[in-house]
Amino acid sequence: AQVAESGGGLVQPGGSLRLSCVASGFPFNNSTMNWHRQAPGMERELVATISKVGSADYADSVKGRLTISRDNAKNTVYLQMNSLKYEDTAVYYCHAFGWGYEYWGQGTQVTVSS
After folding, report:
1. DSSP string spanning 48-110?
2. Rounded to whole angstroms, how far apart are CA atoms 104 and 99?
3. What is the pLDDT of residue 62?
């Protein structure tokens, strides 16, 4: 069982990226899916979460700019990131959890720079 992120890269301030996380080997439809991030020298923080029924919540620092969504038919969760700022630079991690399990991805680097 695993989750695997993709879609990171280098983007200019104000730009957009979409991260994807593909899950396998566990009941995705019954899992809460999260995106966390960790900037250099900082603790890992939760930026967005989506429940198994699609209810989403966000950290205050990203509200209105980042959108989490899920496609249960594809076992995939997305993070659409718009109006990116320098301070969004971090490694972004996908995290899945449910009854008796949780899985973390390896992370994908997002760098916001001019």
Report:
1. EEE-TT--EEE-TTTTTTEEEEEETTTTEEEEEE-S--GGG-EEEEEEEEETTEEEE---EEE
2. 15
3. 97
